[in-house]
Recover the amino acids of this structure.
């Protein structure tokens, strides 16, 4: 199996602090992910001042404040802070990218020449947004939370119509609830997306724990995106549905193991690692008691025991009725 692209979604879990954002970069490096992803937006361009917070945002923040604008305003990263993070990622050897949420942010990220785009689930029905990103025809990851298949078709058609090539599209199955109930994950949707669109398919996870993204890799996900935080008890909209650093590291390790386990050519064959155990674990036809030369082999004087270096018990019927060519002691491997 090819290398699974693992994206550690820092998102807004920096809580507006560049120092906390740099700590997230450090933890992502320690975990061994491929990318760390942040979010690029201007609150004034993203939401109206009267827009209410989602239920999960209110629940996770635990604040009486109900304004999306006020919440997001505190979580913006300036261009200067972006550059600090980009330089820090380069210094530590991890790839940086970010999700844009408005046109100005798209233009800014384009100026950084990152070569990779992430379209979040909330923008799937934003035709002008899709059109703008498609025109660059660079590798584009589209999350499909809150979508039925027709929603995905419409978005993909818009991307193709406006310049994105099929080779540059990756679809992520996703459920936009934080955290996602396990019964709503529906991982088999990845296969439906793969069959419908014939593109790479991955999974953006919002469940608690690491089991589901690991299962997604076993089912063929080529990209995994997972929110992470320094501490799940921190205030903020996404911390409670995020992994802590040790969990992120465990997830990456498990995914790398799963990649090896589901690799191979799909044929059933004896592996080199197990070949040496054939003679030890399998059995041979042996003498159940002392047998004299000329005696007929019967079910009474033959049995089956380890090791498997003699005649295979699969030849049992063939051996029965033959005559012993020499004396055999009890437990001795039979020869014919």
């Amino acid at each position: 199996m090819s290398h699974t692209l693992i994206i550690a979604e820092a998102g807004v879990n920096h809580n507006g602090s560049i120092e906390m954002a740099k700590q997230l970069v450090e933890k992502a490096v320690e975990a061994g992910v491929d990318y760390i992803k942040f979010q690029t937006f201007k609150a004034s361009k993203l939401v109206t001042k009267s827009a209410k917070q989602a239920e999960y945002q209110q629940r996770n923040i635990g604040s009486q404040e109900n304004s999306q604008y006020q919440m997001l305003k505190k979580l913006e990263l300036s261009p200067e802070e972006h550059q600090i993070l980009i330089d820090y990622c380069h210094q530590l050897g991890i790839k940086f990218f970010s999700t844009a949420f408005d046109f100005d942010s798209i233009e800014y990220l384009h100026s950084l020449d990152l070569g990779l785009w992430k379209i979040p689930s909330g923008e799937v029905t934003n035709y002008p947004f899709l059109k703008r990103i498609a025109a660059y025809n660079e590798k584009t990851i589209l999350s499909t939370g809150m979508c039925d298949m027709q929603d995905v078709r419409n978005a993909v058609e818009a991307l193709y119509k406006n310049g994105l090539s099929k080779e540059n599209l990756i679809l992520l199955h996703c459920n936009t609830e934080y955290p996602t109930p396990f019964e709503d994950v529906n991982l088999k949707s990845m296969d439906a997306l793969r069959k419908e669109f014939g593109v790479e398919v991955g999974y953006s996870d919002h469940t608690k724990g690491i089991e589901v993204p690991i299962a997604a890799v076993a089912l063929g996900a080529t990209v995994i995106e997972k929110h992470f935080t320094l501490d799940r008890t921190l205030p903020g909209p996404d911390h409670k549905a995020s992994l802590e650093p040790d969990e992120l590291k465990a997830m990456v390790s498990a995914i790398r193991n799963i990649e090896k386990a589901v690799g191979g050519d799909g044929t059933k064959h004896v592996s080199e690692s197990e070949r040496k155990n054939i003679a030890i674990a399998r059995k041979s036809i042996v003498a159940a008691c002392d047998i004299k030369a000329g005696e007929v082999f019967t079910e009474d004087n033959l049995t089956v025991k380890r090791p498997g270096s003699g005649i295979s018990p699969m030849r049992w019927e063939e051996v029965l009725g033959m005559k012993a060519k020499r004396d055999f002691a009890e437990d001795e491997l039979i020869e014919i």
Remarks:
- Residues 5-261 form a domain with the TIM Barrel fold (CATH 3.20.20.70).
- The chain has two domains: 5-261, 272-319.
- The longest helix spans residues 245-261.
- The chain has a mean pLDDT of 95.
